[in-house]
Amino acid sequence: MRFLPESGRPTVAVIGFGYVGSCIAATLADRGLDVVAVDADARLVDELAHGRFRLEEPGLAEKVFAGLASGRLRVTADMAAAAAADVILITVGTPVRDDGSLAGGQLRGACLALAGHLRAGQLVVLKSTVPPGTTRETVLPLLESGGLTGGTDFGLAFTPERLAEGTALRELLTFPIVAGGYEQDSVRAVTAFWRRTLGVEVIPCDSLEAAEIVKLASNWWIDVNIAVANELAKFCALYGVDVLDVTAAANTIQKGTGSINILRPGVGVGGSCLTKDPWMVWNTARRLGVDIRTASTGREVNAGMPQYTAGLVTDELGARGKDPAHATVAVLGLAFKNDTGDLRATPVLDTVRALTRAGVTVRLHDPLVDAQEAEAMFGTALCATVEEAVLGADCVAVLAPHRDFAGIDYAALPVAENCVLLDGRAYFPKERIAEFTAAGYVYRGVGRGPAVGGAPGEVLTRTAEAVR
After folding, report:
1. In Å, how far are 223, 304, 377, 406 from 373, measured between CA atoms?
2. Burial status of residue 241 (CB atoms within 10 A of its CB: 0-12, 13-18, 19 or more)
3. Which of 220, 293, 306, 408 is the residue whose CA sits 20 to 30 A from 384?
4. Host domain of residue 343
5. Interacting residues of 379 by C-beta distance below 8 A, sequence separation 6+
6. Could you tell me the end-to-end alpha-carbon distance of the chain, in angstroms, rounded to an integer?
7. Which tens digit of pLDDT belongs to each residue from 366-400?
């Protein structure tokens, strides 16, 4: 059966107007398609009607409101609106429980609501990240509960979202799209849909499960890579070696079709994908009797980085004769990712908690986050300015180096004597570090700075003795 009009622009419904859904809906509307977005949050719909858009993504708000103004984009809480669409994209949240299993309430609810409005000839495409088998074993029967049969009456496909916050709109129009279908008609239809609407390369997969695993594989690799970078940073710190020098040299080696590509270390990993997808892999494999160690180990390493980063601060304060219990630390940047205001699973929260447990007085500043959301999360009000945050501070911890911080004149900041400057993302180049030192700061970074436990020669001597 053909699940897509032979010519012209197909009409589209997007179920879930969160980060992924809004990026896709706004982009398709911008490219001339008629799009209706359906979201169960009636307040979100009302906010849009009054000119408020919740998410921070370069260019996204402009695209959303341009689409609404042109009439090519509509946002509603009524699932019945999806009945008129040729293609239905499901982009609801798919969080995991503490054990790594899928908390599929949003997905099940969306599918059950959609089932009552499906009509023959529609193509349903799931984009939410799920464990392999979910599209076939959960989504399909829920949609069929409305009386239609998948593969005969409606098409079903899975095309994972693979967008990075901060660059999503560009990536939508440049990244290849992976596509798997319930049967070949669905694969052909979803491949034609993305090529026709976004003009991007589409990579067909042999099954729904293969396409589902592709997304998990990508984030599994990224998380493990960051874990390697973080452990390498700890190793380099033993010898006072700059981890960025090591990775720059190591990454020159060609392997296979690419190069070694060790990423940067940092305070930890956050966001809604990297913190959950490896656990999704681990839990799914465990249920089938296989122990996937790299997924859980990578997660544990990265989850431990906030405590490690807080330890860098307290250790350096102690080395300077400052009792952490009587010290003040100014934290600049609270978001999980640079140049965003996104606080989801931010590792900065656990870093602040670790510092607070050590008795440190912590002040917070981030010009990009929602102040009320941050206050509720961190339990304290944010400082309005950098100067207010750092006044008399014994340490300035840059944990999300936003572009907004690039112009800070650190030499002019009203900090305490021998102030520690903690680089939580291994961000600053050596020339800048030299400037900090000249201005009287004590620089420490993740995997950068003096050797842990003594000078490099002392560490090497102890290591040799241990080997003997």
Report:
1. 26, 24, 6, 24
2. middle
3. 306
4. 303-445
5. none
6. 73
7. 999 999 999 999 999 999 999 999 999 999 999 99
